Amino acid sequence: MAKTGAETAGTDVRAAGADGTDGSGEGVLGYEQARDELIEVVRRLEAGGTTLEESLALWERGEELSKVCRHWLEGARARLDAALAESGAEERGGSDEA
């Protein structure tokens, strides 16, 4: 059986979902893991020397990894915003008691 461009590119191109999973049931792809793989995908694309099919597979994987990273960063931002809002509410509540 002939290998697809994704297989010959040496990159697992299973799409990661918005929750960071890769659909294999192996769990969530962490931010650092997704970021590091994205850096490698970009490096390989910039280096050239891949076929069109391999380049497209790498590009698609990069897009999915970008979504995973964005999901993690948006979650971190929401947590920070919630913590800041809670901290601000406590400060306002504490100044009323003085």
Automatic annotation (TrEMBL):
This is Exodeoxyribonuclease 7 small subunit. GO terms for molecular function: exodeoxyribonuclease VII activity. Its EC number is 3.1.11.6. The keyword Zinc does not apply. It is found in: Cytoplasm. Residues 1-28 are annotated as: Disordered. NCBIfam families: PRK00977.1-3, xseB. Belongs to the XseB family. PANTHER family: EXODEOXYRIBONUCLEASE 7 SMALL SUBUNIT. The lineage of its organism: Bacteria, Bacillati, Actinomycetota, Actinomycetes, Kitasatosporales. It comes from the Bacteria. Pfam families: Exonuc_VII_S (PF02609). Heterooligomer composed of large and small subunits. Keywords: Cytoplasm, Exonuclease, Hydrolase, Nuclease. It catalyses: Exonucleolytic cleavage in either 5'- to 3'- or 3'- to 5'-direction to yield nucleoside 5'-phosphates. Bidirectionally degrades single-stranded DNA into large acid-insoluble oligonucleotides, which are then degraded further into small acid-soluble oligonucleotides.
